[in-house]
């Protein structure tokens, strides 16, 4: 961190401005991180981190290092000879971690305030590192689209979170939704989620859907992510079968949060899907429960014998991996065959993970985030026996759908991972090699919350915005 880069500033002056003795006598274990910043840091670093007696934390000049560990060390140990107090005695480690997250958030907000983004009504043309591209509306008039699936014959299906499935034929949205869908809990974060065709759809016609299934338990309205499959016939979903339904005791309050809901098939034809921890992190660490997990089944719902907990009588045998918070992205690398998830973290700490069988992804024991209300959660970001993410986002971008690009319109993007984000309204491109992040870039942002991104059979990339599906094609 860069405290007092000018050695000419005397310690005596700094001490007078930042009364070390007074602040260190207090205990700062309660309150939000923003309140703590105002109490302890604003006097020297400025009300908005713009600097004052101590340097700005908004620019990119760091005398003592600007990475997370350097920031934490500077807060912990201070630079008493330069007037920066030692905070280790009065701030627990988790509060120091929360302050690092808060500095990251404030820097990101400031960077955004210094940038102007056009929000044009018509097509957008943009430059990026490997390809320039045009983004234009493909299908308009959808409400909170959650997923998109391409079918043979210039057809596609789009789910709306509110519980409707629409056919798109030759780029035209059908007037009426597909009939015969199950009743969906669409309150809060609940709704109709993914639609994915069977890898052999052309032969068998199976479509897989995930949704929040409403039930009653002890007179309470509850819901949980359920997986079904069915076939399209005469504008209706027929021959419906349940592929996965969790035990009623693990259903949680209807509406509510963290349903997961993404589906993916791997190259061998296994079906994977995600269920979020329903707002209770302890669920994610309990392998008896389906919540906070990635699951693996055969395409007809049978449980493979070689699932990691298939022989454990106390476990939910469908579990593939655990310790997940709210995974709304799931995709298989077309080159390595490896499975990746993207999950919403708390405030700061969204993750992309390489998902391996039986592994523990750490939530809520380890996280790079803090509580939404700005109180500290933990300083533990790594632990033996728990997996580290491929990459994480502080501040959170609210990462959502992910997909690898396998088309040919953008040859330099082939096999790269694309990630949608809701809060930051960004589309990201990531290069991942051997499970490690090589590089990533933001392709565009501020056209609205992005729920998902998927390549089409024409090689274009399709992006789900709040009321439309946009199509990305190469531009000069
Ligand atoms: Ca994790």
Core attributes:
476 residues; Cytochrome Bc1 Complex, Chain D, domain 2; Neuraminidase; five-stranded antiparallel beta sheet; 26 strands; globular
Could you characterize the architecture of this molecule?
- The structure is a single chain.
- The protein has helices at residues 11-17, 20-24, 33-40, 42-45, 68-77, 93-113, 201-204, 281-285; strands at 124-126, 133-140, 145-151, 155-160, 164-169, 172-173, 192-197, 207-217, 220-233, 236-244, 252-253, 263-265, 271-275, 293-297, 319-322, 326-332, 339-344, 350-355, 391-393, 399-404, 417-421, 426-433, 436-445, 452-455, 461-465, 468-474.
- By secondary structure, the chain is α+β, with helices and mostly antiparallel strands.
- It folds into 2 domains: 11-113, Cytochrome c-like domain (Cytochrome Bc1 Complex, Chain D, domain 2, Orthogonal Bundle); 124-474, Neuraminidase.
- The strands form 6 sheets. It has a 5-stranded antiparallel β-sheet, with no helix packed on it. Strands 7, 8, 9, 10 and 11 form a 5-stranded antiparallel β-sheet that branches.
- Residues 1-25 have low confidence and may be disordered.
- It binds calcium ion (CA).
- The site of calcium ion has 5 residues, from loops.
């Amino acid at each position: 961190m860069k405290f007092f880069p000018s050695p000419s500033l005397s310690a005596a002056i700094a001490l007078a401005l930042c009364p070390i003795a007074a602040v260190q006598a207090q205990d700062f274990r309660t309150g939000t991180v923003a309140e703590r910043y105002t109490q302890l840091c604003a006097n020297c670093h400025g009300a908005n981190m713009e600097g004052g007696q101590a340097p700005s934390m908004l620019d990119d000049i760091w005398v003592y290092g600007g990475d997370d560990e350097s920031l934490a060390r500077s807060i912990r140990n201070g630079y008493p000879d330069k007037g920066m107090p030692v905070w280790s005695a009065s701030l627990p480690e988790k509060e120091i971690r929360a302050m690092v997250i808060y500095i990251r958030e404030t820097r990101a907000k400031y960077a955004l305030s210094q940038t102007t983004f056009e929000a044009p009504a018509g097509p957008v043309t943009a430059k990026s590192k490997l390809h320039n591209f045009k983004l234009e509306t493909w299908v308009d008039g959808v409400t909170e689209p959650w997923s998109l699936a391409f079918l043979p014959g210039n057809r596609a299906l789009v789910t709306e979170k509110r519980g409707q499935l629409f056919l798109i034929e030759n780029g035209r949205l059908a007037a009426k939704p597909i009939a015969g869908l199950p009743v969906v809990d669409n309150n809060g974060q609940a709704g109709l989620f993914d639609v994915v065709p069977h890898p052999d759809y052309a032969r068998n016609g199976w479509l897989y859907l995930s949704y929040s299934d409403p039930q009653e338990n002890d007179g309470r309205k509850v819901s949980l992510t359920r997986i079904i499959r069915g076939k399209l016939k005469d504008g209706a979903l027929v021959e419906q079968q349940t592929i996965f339904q969790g035990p009623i005791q693990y259903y949680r309050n209807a509406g509510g949060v963290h349903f997961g809901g993404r589906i993916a098939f791997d190259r061998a034809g296994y079906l994977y899907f995600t269920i979020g921890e329903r707002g209770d992190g302890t669920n994610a660490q309990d392998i008896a429960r389906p919540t906070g997990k990635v699951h693996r089944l055969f395409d007809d719902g049978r449980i493979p014998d070689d699932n990691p907990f298939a022989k454990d009588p106390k476990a939910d045998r469908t579990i593939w991996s655990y310790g997940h918070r709210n995974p709304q992205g799931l995709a298989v690398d077309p080159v390595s065959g490896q499975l990746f998830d993207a999950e919403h973290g708390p405030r700061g700490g969204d993750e992309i993970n390489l998902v391996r069988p039986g592994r523990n992804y750490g939530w809520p024991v380890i996280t790079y985030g803090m509580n939404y209300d700005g109180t500290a959660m933990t300083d533990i970001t790594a632990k033996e026996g728990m997996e580290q993410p491929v990459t994480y986002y502080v501040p959170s971008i609210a990462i959502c759908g992910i997909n690898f690009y396998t088309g040919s319109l953008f040859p330099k993007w082939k096999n790269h991972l694309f990630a949608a984000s809701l809060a930051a309204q960004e589309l990201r491109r990531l290069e991942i090699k051997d499970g490690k992040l090589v590089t990533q870039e933001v392709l565009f942002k501020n056209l609205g919350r992005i729920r998902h991104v998927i390549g089409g059979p024409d090689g274009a990339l399709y992006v789900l915005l709040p009321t439309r599906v946009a199509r990305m094609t190469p531009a000069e």
